[in-house]
Every structure is written in structure tokens, then in C-alpha cells.
Design brief:
- By secondary structure, the protein is mainly β.
- It folds into two domains: 85 residues, no CATH class; 249 residues, Leucine-rich repeat, LRR (right-handed beta-alpha superhelix) (Alpha-Beta Horseshoe).
- The strands form five sheets. The chain has an eleven-stranded parallel β-sheet with strand order 3-4-5-6-8-10-12-14-16-18-19, with no helix packed on it.
- It starts with a helix and ends in a 14-residue tail after the last strand.
């Protein structure tokens, strides 16, 4: 389906009518393309009152709230109550619809002031960088998902002028340049996914000041430099994904952390009991393909109970790590190429 058909439908929901002529002629049947556009838009809307239940059958001109031109059969009005004047469309999911020919999708969406959740993943969108700040009126937006649009550009500034955002999904978009400085003002963010891009800076310390973050994924970029102790400011973080970069040093002191992914980095040096001291909630530890050395005492009792352990290419041996005996919930374990040359203990 062409992108302009979906956007036209959105305009129809925003505008009460495009034409004063509507169909009462039962011989007029709506076009197949416009019927599919209506059904696609219906799929992306929440309809708690079941108002759209009549949107079935071959002729969309007979559906509740839909009017057609009595000569051409084109839809000229589509007005369910939550679309009237575009005032109360809280949820819109157009993922997977090809919008590559659309250049004004932001202007259209900007006419939905009650929009809270916006999903436009895999839409082949074109980047819009020159939208004036005064035209951005997404004051109600809390979720934006732009996964896998392959923009191949700098991240657009308008994304970082929405302080109400709680979740921002920007992975698989070929964004490049430094981590956008505009993020530092988005203090309400709980989920930030910048993974699978080409960001190529160090990790700025201000990123660690987004204290509401629960999930931070900056994996598989070209980030470099040290993970500084300031990472400890992320006091709410439970999932931290850093793998696939060129990062150095340790990973901080994060007491709420449940999942830590630091594989395929330039991490090196010794990791001792102190590094794990406050990770009491850690359940998943993925840290393969690094040059780290585990230095813990033979009677060390970790403060966590891990379910997934991936420490491939660490230096752990030659003895089989006794602390594994304390981990009662392991479902996945990778200790390959860790220098262990010991017998497998009977308790294992």
C-alpha cells in the first residue's frame, strides 16, 4: 500500500470532511486501496468502545462514520469519535508500512496533539532534519519507536525536543556522529536504545546523569574510551548493554543492575570481588571476548545468583572456579577459552 494513502487517511481523521458531497448512492463502492488503508489504520488504533466493529465487508462506504463521493466512490470522510478534529488519537502503530515516498509525515503527525505512543519501525522513512522547533508539538508523546528505518544520517534534532518521552527506540538506523547532546535534557527517559548504529564518540558523562533510565542499550556502535565511575549515577538501571564497542575499564557499581552485556569490547585488566560487591540483583552476565582476568579468592561467595554466564576468553583458570558452586539457578554457562585445565568437580 502506498504511503500517501495512509497519510491521506490520517488527514481524513483530522479534517471533518474534504468535500461536502457524500454518498447515499448504494451503487457507489469504495476503492480496494482505500478500504485497505482504512483497515490498516484501524489496526493501529485502540478501540475500547468497539466503535469500529462495523468496519468489515467489501464496501467501506457503508461503514459507520465513513462517507464517499457519490460520483467517484473515493472516501471523503472517516470520522470515528476518537478521530474527530484529530484530538484524541493516543496510539498509532504504522510499523512495516512503506512510507519512503512521504516527506511530510512529521507535519501530519503533529496534528495529533493527544498522541502518546508512536510506532514507525521498518517504514523506510526519510530523515527530516529541518523541521522548525515551533512546529514540533508532540507534548503528549511518551513512546517513539523508529526501529530499523536505516536513515544513514545524523540523528534528527527534533527527536530531542520532546521532554515527555519515556521510551526512545532508535536502533538499526545507521545513525552516525557523536551520541546526540540533545539527549541530556530528556530526563524522563526510562528506556533508551541506540544500538546497531554507527555512533563514534566516547560515552559522555552526562549520559550517566539520566537517572530515570531502567534500560540503556548502546551496543554495537563504534564507541570508544573508558566506562568511567560516573556510570554509578544510573541508580535505576536494570539492563545495561555495552557490547560490540571499543570500550575500556570497568563497568561501575550499579546495585539495581539485573542484566549486564559488555562482550566484544577492549576491556582488560583484573576484575576482583570488589567489582561485583553491589551487584546483588545481577541475573545475566555476558562479557565474552574481552581480555579480563578474574582474580577472586577460592572461597568467594558472590552477592548474586546468576542464570546466564558468558565469560568466554577471560582468564579464569587453571582451577575450576569454586564460586560456581554457589550459583543455584544457572541455565546458560560459557567458560570456553578461559585457561581452565582442572578436573570437573563432582558438585558440578
Amino acid at each position: 500500500m502506498k504511503s500517501f494513502e495512509v497519510l491521506l487517511l490520517m488527514f481524513l481523521c483530522i479534517q471533518t470532511t474534504i468535500s461536502s458531497v457524500s454518498s447515499t448512492n448504494t451503487a457507489v463502492v469504495c476503492s480496494k486501496a482505500e478500504k485497505q488503508a482504512l483497515l490498516s489504520f484501524k489496526k493501529g488504533l485502540k478501540d475500547p468502545t468497539n466503535w469500529l466493529s462495523s468496519w468489515i465487508g467489501e464496501d467501506c462506504c457503508t461503514w459507520k462514520g465513513v462517507s464517499c463521493n457519490n460520483r467517484t466512490g473515493h472516501v471523503v470522510k472517516a470520522g470515528p469519535p476518537f478521530c474527530s478534529v484529530g484530538a484524541s488519537v493516543p496510539y498509532l502503530d504504522m510499523s512495516g508500512i512503506n512510507l519512503s515516498n512521504s516527506t511530510d509525515y512529521l507535519q501530519v503527525l503533529n496534528k495529533l496533539p493527544s498522541l502518546r505512543d508512536l510506532f514507525l519501525s521498518s517504514c523506510e522513512l526519510n530523515p527530516i532534519h529541518d523541521l522548525p522547533a515551533q512546529l514540533v508539538n508532540f507534548s503528549s508523546l511518551t513512546i517513539i519507536d523508529l526501529l530499523e528505518n536505516n536513515f544513514n544520517s545524523l540523528a534528527p534534532d527534533w527527536l530531542f525536543s520532546i521532554p515527555s518521552l519515556v521510551s526512545l527506540e532508535l536502533s538499526w538506523n545507521s545513525f552516525y556522529g557523536p551520541i546526540p547532546v540533545g539527549l541530556q535534557n530528556m530526563t524522563s527517559l526510562k528506556i533508551l536504545d541506540l544500538s546497531e548504529n554507527n555512533f563514534n564518540s566516547t560515552i559522555p558523562d552526562w549520559l550517566y546523569n539520566l537517572r530515570s533510565l531502567v534500560t540503556l542499550d548502546i551496543s554495537d556502535n563504534n564507541l570508544r574510551g573508558s566506562i568511567t565511575s560516573v556510570v554509578g549515577n544510573l541508580t535505576s538501571i536494570t539492563r545495561l548493554y555495552l557490547w560490540g564497542n571499543e570500550l575500556e575499564e570497568s563497568f561501575g557499581n550499579l546495585s539495581q543492575l539485573g542484566e549486564l552485556y559488555i562482550s566484544h569490547n577492549s576491556l582488560e585488566g583484573e576484575v576482583s570481588e570488589v567489582h561485583f560487591a553491589n551487584l546483588t540483583r545481577l541475573k545475566a552476565f555476558y562479557a565474552s571476548s574481552t581480555s579480563l582476568i578474574l582474580k577472586v579468592s577460592s572461597d568467594w561467595i558472590p552477592p548474586f545468583q546468576l542464570q546466564d554466564i558468558q565469560m568466554r576468553s577471560w582468564h579464569v583458570g587453571p582451577q575450576f572456579p569454586g564460586w560456581l558452586q554457589t550459583q543455584k539457578s544457572i541455565s546458560y554457562l560459557d567458560l570456553s577459552s578461559t585457561g581452565i585445565s582442572d578436573e570437573i568437580p563432582t558438585w558440578f
